[in-house]
Each structure stands twice: as structure tokens, then as C-alpha cells.
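> @MW can you paste both from yesterday?
MW: sure, first one:
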Amino acid sequence: MKTELDESVCVYGSGVLLKHLQALMQEIEGVESGAEDIEHIHRMRVASRRLRSAFSLFSGCLPPKKQKEWLRQIKQVTRALGAARDADVQIARLQTFLDGLTLRKHRPGVERLLLRLRQQRQRLQPGLQDAMRELQSSGVLAELQAYLTPQAARQEQVYLYTPALYRHAFTAIAAALADLLAYDAIVYQPDQVEQLHAMRISAKRLRYTIENLAPLYPSGLKPYLQTVRKTQELLGDIHDCDVWIAFLPRFLEEEKQRILDFYNHTRPFSRLVAGIEYFCADCAAARSQHYENFVGRWRRWQEEGLWTKLGQEIRAPFFQSAPGGDRPKAGANREENAQDEGAA
């Protein structure tokens, strides 16, 4: 949205942007220190994504020359956090699997894979620390905070709940919803790995769009937000399994070559195969279960007309007015945002 937006849109948007910026800044120290609590990385990654979503929603309210650099820096942070977070999730998943193994023959392969993932995660930490230092030294956070703070402070002086703001919210949510529903045909095609992953990304965008605008509506759009979160979660579970299924054969080949280079033969490799193949089979079974769960829920949501109801609710403010110019009671979604940040 490149055009200049209404004052109510920009004051509201500044508050949204500032909230996500502050959430991001709170996690920098924990991420940079390499704290054992991996949730620092997760929370900062989610905050960076929410901030980027809000940038898109309210870009017309930001100075064009500045916002390009601001967004570039935030994107760099998201990428740096993404690799570390993905590794943390994989390590946690594999450790849980290892802890549940009952046959000794399965342990060597899984233990070797866990070792390689932990080594990879250690190699990522210096780059992550560099990204945190660059972000702080760039001055982007201070600039953005200085710009947004006085704008957001005007919320007590400016009436926010204008037709312009609701029109902006309707347009944004409707567009994100249409993008998600465009994937309806591939829901029932389990082999469409890339398209199901693209649908997950679309669900994530819709989720962040709704989160940023839900306080405008009396219900907080709560049932729809919960459904979109579940859609993202289920598609994320499917994608995680797809990543493992594609990665594990490559890992075996790479480990075989590594052993050959070290020993000049591959005899130690045989003891690793059983565990990796067993884990791969577990991932395939889990993938089938997650997929069936997703299809069942998606079909039920469609039969209930959930998405149609969402469209009707975001359209309703065009036909209603708050008596006496009073602000409608906004949906209380802030606590929900602070709870389940997952599937991000």
C-alpha cells in the first residue's frame, strides 16, 4: 500500500508497529547470549514476522526512504533467526524420539544425527550474534521507535474507529483470506508437498493480518483466529515431516561419505542405517496422520461456512455505526498473542 493513508489508520498502525517492535527488542539480549531457553529465538522470530506484516499493512504511513532500510534490517533478522529456530526444533524433536527408543539397534543412527544437528546449531550461533550486533549498531531500532512512539501516543487524541480504518482492515483481511482459499483444490492432494507448504505460508500471513486488526472488532475475530492458527499448525506439522523425509536419505549419503573419507572404508556406516530408517518411517507415519487430521478439519470448516462468516464479520462495520461516536469494544486478543506463538 504505497499511497498515504487516513490519519486514523496511521495512528492505529503506529501502535501496532510499536508493540511488535518492543516485543522484538525485549528478546535481543537472550538471543545474543545464546541462553539455554530457546524460546528467546522463537519469540523474537515471531515478533519480527509480525512486525513485517504490520509494515505491509501500514507502509503508506511510513516515510518511504526510511522504511526500505528498516524493512531490510528486519528481514535480515528474520532469516538469521529462522535457521537457528529450525535447528532448535529439529533437535528437540529428535531428542524426544531418541528418549522413546526401546531397541538398541536404533540408537546409533539417531544419536549420530543428533550430534550433527547440534554441531550445525553451534556453527549458527556466531552468525546469529553478529546479526544481533548489526541490528543494534545500525540504529534502525532506535529510529523506528523514535518515529512510532509519538504517533502511537496520539491514540488518545485521534478517533480511531473510522470508516477508513474499517475499510483498510476489510481490504487487507479479505485479500489474505482469498489467497488462502485459492489453495482449496490442493488440500485433497497429499503429494502436493510444495503447494501445501505454500498454503501454510498463506495461512501464516492471514493469521498475522487478523492479529494486527482483530482489536477493531467486538469478537476480536477469535474463532477465525483460532482456526487460522490451527491451519498453520497442522500444515506446519506436515511440512516438518516432509523436510525430514527429504533430508534423511541425503544425511545417510553424506555420513557414508564422511566415514569413507575418515576410515577409507564404510564398515562403521552399517550400524547407523537402522535408526535413521526407523526415524524416517516414523516421520512418514506422522505425516499421514497430520494430513488426515488437517483434511478432516478443513472439510468441517468449509461445511460450517467459517470463512464466509469471517467475510461477513469484517464487512459488518460498513453497515453499522457506534452510537454517539463511542468506540466499539475491541476484541481482547493481546493475551492470546502472548500465549501460543507457535507454528511460526
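MW: second:
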Amino acid sequence: LDVIDLFRENDTRDELGLGVIRDAFSDHFFPGTSTIQTRVRYFLFVPWIMKQLEDKQIRSEDAKRRLRQYQGRLRDSLIKGDEETGVIGYRAGINVLRLPSSVYWNGLRRWGILRFQGSEDEYQRSLDGYYARHRRALRTDDGEPVDGIAVANWDAHFPTAPDGLLEETTFELEDEEVEYIVDRIKMMASHSLLSQMIDHG
């Protein structure tokens, strides 16, 4: 029985220390990506959802619950758009363990889309303070914060979310979205193999 129990263990120890080498190569060649990221448009979906949260000024204490709701609606929206393969939570539904935001968070920061430097939990806890800083910030005639008093959490050139995002959508990228993603990779990881592959189709 002890031997059978050994087969049940999901041990992720790296006795030879090869994981560090693997991760270094991975980050050098394909920065911001991992094998569980299968659809590029999630790099846009997640910020669009987070920005909705900020626009509605959802409080820090409610952020986790509301983000799970929004990401559940995104899943339903993709299914309604006839997407199946690559939809996070397609089978698990509301009980999905890893939400898109956790899968794509580090990549968003690596590509310079996300400007907030902490974890997703830290981001959620920071929202109340973020709203307060924005309310106090001096603004220009165009409504922009003066001297970066209220630093945005997201890249200023991020594309606008499409209408009906949480009603029906697909993984198909618009031309503007492709240009934005390519620009981010070129800007933040120009010497990577990922960037070279984009150059050569």
C-alpha cells in the first residue's frame, strides 16, 4: 500500500536543480509565456476585465469575488462565440482552480502591459488606495494626472475593449490588437526568439 501511495504523490521537487535552468532558457527565448497559455487574446481579455473593475471603482474587499464573476462571464461569452479549445474553465465552469488572470499575470507584466509591480492579490488589495490617489491627483486640462501622481496600473496605449466583450466574443484578434501585442513584445523583449519568430512570420 505504501508503494501504491507513492504513485499518488504529485511531487514537484527538482532534485537536480534543472528547473532553474529550464526557466532561464524559457524566459530568455519566450519571455512572458508558459505552456499553459494557449490563446494570445487572453493578454487583452484580462486587462479589459481589470479595467472594468477599476472603472466601476470596485472596492478591494469585493475585488476577488467580482473578478471571478467577470472571468466566469468571459468564459460564457467565449462559449457563446463558438469557442471551445483554449477556453479556461470550459469544463470546470465556476469551480475552475486557475483563472485567466493568474495564468497571464506575469506575462502581462513582462510585456509591459501591466505596470503594477505586485502580485494579483496585492493588486486587489491596492485598489482602494489607487482610487484615493486618483481623486487627489492634480490634473491637466485634458484630465491627465500631473507629474505622475496617480500612476496607472496599465499601459497608456492599451486598446479599447470591444463592445459586448462579456456577452459574446472570440479569440480572433483585431488588426489593432495584433499591432499592439507585437509592439509590446518588440519593446520589452526585442532580442528574444519570440520576437524573431514574429519578424519571420
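> thanks! Helices lie at 2-8, 18-29, 42-55, 60-80, 100-110, 120-136, 175-188, 193-199.
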